[in-house]
Amino acid sequence: MKTAYDVVIIGGGIGGLMCAYQLKRLKPSLDILLLEKGQDIEKRTCPIVTKKTRTCLKCQPCAIMEGMAGAGAFSDGKYIISTEYGGWLPDLFDSDLVYQYILRADEILMSFGADKEVYRPSARLRYECLKHDLHMQSAKVKHLGTDANFKTMQKMINDLKTKIEILTLARMQDVDIKTHEVTFTRANETYKVKADAIVLALGRAGALDFKKWAEKNKLELSNNQVDIGVRVELPYEIWEPFSKEIYEPKIKYSTKQYHDVVRMFCFNERGQVVSENTNGVLTVNGHAYKDENKKSQNSNFALLSTTNFTSPFNEPIEYAKSVASLANQISGGSVIVQRLGDLRNGRRTDEKRLKESSVRPTLNAIAGDLSLCMPKRQLDNIIETLDALSLVAPGTNNYDTLLYGVECKYYSARPKAKEFELDNTDNIYALGDGAGFTRSLSQAAASGLMVAEKIVYGEIANLSDRR
Ligand SMILES: Cc1cc2nc3c(=O)[nH]c(=O)nc-3n(C[C@H](O)[C@H](O)[C@H](O)COP(=O)(O)OP(=O)(O)OC[C@H]3O[C@@H](n4cnc5c(N)ncnc54)[C@H](O)[C@@H]3O)c2cc1C
């Protein structure tokens, strides 16, 4: 390791990796160091996924959220080829410009073996939903699959290892915005390196650290949204008419009781429900393998109710963590699974009732009662939306539909920045999910490419002008 670099990138998720890749492509002479607090990609194994334990052991680092390839390593690899959702880049840049960068990132992933097949939106299904006040978002999407996505990222990382220096198990502790000194720890040792340009690509696992660091440096932050809800699991046949045609139905519904927005997204056909550890709190998520042998008989999706807090409350992440922690507490350090019918009837799903369920759970969660930990408002919203979704996919609100809790998506506080360069700093950038700019693989990847352009050319321009 040297003491000074042209660029130090912190975070080895898709945003940081794309940034490194593009920097080297645009200017091969650049000396780049990438720091990642988690393990290298091949060494990432979660004891829950390998069924060694039912409860989260709070491993440090967490193999699901942290490590080379970031939170996306075990993701389903749904790559959204659209600016319609997946983050807030279109609020900051022209949509067409963002779209170009999403396409460029896709080209790069394809060069490392990612799938070429694209699912297109269906006007017919969109209309079917509209009839019931359900608003289906229509974007082109690719489904790489958890296994194929992992291999693609592995190839990309192996390629980068020949071009830049990568240190895993290296946790950034501080970045001095005046001296450009990066302090990090590795195997109980503290190191300091300097760089002309510094890129913070910390993802959701680094969101709280980023917030604290920004506050310490008096950088202005905003964002007060949180999405809380459940992971829904049901027989795959129920949503097959949608998944066959468009792969991923993403539907928004405004509840009649509270006028809150509830989003159905992150759909995994014949997939698995998984738990994930975010900053010590266990939540749920889902994924699906491309390999026919690894497919389950169930599909799953996230159903989350959006809350935008108003003054004086401004701690949405802490709020979501409290709700999820309560679920962890009452399930003895795990996540809860409950049948929809039991929830409606105000009774706990216990192990016996779960065994009677016609839907076999794919996650080894604790049978319990979500109404003991989730706020009434969010639960009412979830139940109302399941009833509405049943109008286009009958069976969605069956008694045995499984609800896992808590799933939450919280968005990092967004710093004031110009083209990702943080206000009141020189050549220090933040990108991706960790800085609250994105919430998807495609937009996080696009933000990585954009920051590389900004570092090399001083501006983020139309890609066709660069060819
Ligand atoms: C289970 C799961 C499934 C998902 N499925 C999809 C999907 O199908 N499609 C989709 O579009 N999105 C999906 N997502 C979201 C997607 O993974 C993220 O939007 C994307 O990974 C964000 O990229 P990023 O580079 O900003 O951050 P991340 O991928 O989170 O990477 C950030 C990296 O920074 C590291 N880091 C944090 N702090 C430090 C520090 N102090 N020092 C050093 N390193 C640090 C972390 O360990 C992490 O590896 C999924 C997420 C999960 C968890």
Could you write a compact summary of the structure shown?
By secondary structure, the chain is α+β, with helices and mostly antiparallel strands. It contains 13 helices and 23 strands.
Topology (SSEs and partners):
Layout: E1 4-10, H1 14-26, E2 32-35, E3 78-81, H2 89-92, H3 95-111, H4 123-130, E4 134-136, E5 140-143, H5 146-161, E6 165-167, E7 171-175, E8 181-186, E9 189-200, H6 207-216, E10 221-222, E11 225-235, H7 240-246, E12 251-254, E13 261-268, E14 272-278, E15 281-287, E16 298-308, H8 316-330, E17 336-339, H9 340-344, H10 351-356, E18 366-367, H11 376-389, E19 402-410, E20 414-415, E21 417-418, E22 421-422, E23 428-430, H12 441-457, H13 463-466
Helix pairs in contact: 1-5, 1-12, 3-12
The structure holds flavin-adenine dinucleotide (FAD).
Flavin-adenine dinucleotide is lined by residues 10-16, 35-38, 65-67, 70-72, 74-78, 80, 86, 171-172, 201-206, 209, 276, 285, 287, 432-434, 439-442, 444.
